[in-house]
Predict the structure of Limonene-1,2-epoxide hydrolase.
Amino acid sequence: MSNEAVVRAFLKGMEQPLSKVPAHLRASMTDDAVWGNSGFPPCVGIEDIVSKHEMSGEVFGDYVLTAEVFHLAEGPDGVVFTERVDVGRTQAGEEILTVQVVGVFEVRDGKIARWTDYFDPRGLLAGLSELPDVEAYFTGKK
């Protein structure tokens, strides 16, 4: 499977209730994966990444995230770039989060080893104002 196909499958697999996403992350990412969001400390290791996703549920509930990919390109070094809009919806279909994102993915042995998203965090921060420990959300560490 090409790196492009790995990234497409990864993003498609995220389109399920958040409570089911940890299993997808563990199956799709390396144990030492790094996930970063522009301007915030990265999560290092699959358990930090899973923890951050679980904390997202504390803020937004068991939502479903859909990634609408506009452009996807794989460089000669195998790095995959995406331009997309991530939309979070309640399971009833109510839109609760919309973020325009440029994502960069590195793939190793058919799994995501590095995932970095670059976006304007203002929309996300508005929803996070209800979280008692915002720093924990961004570090993935409770």
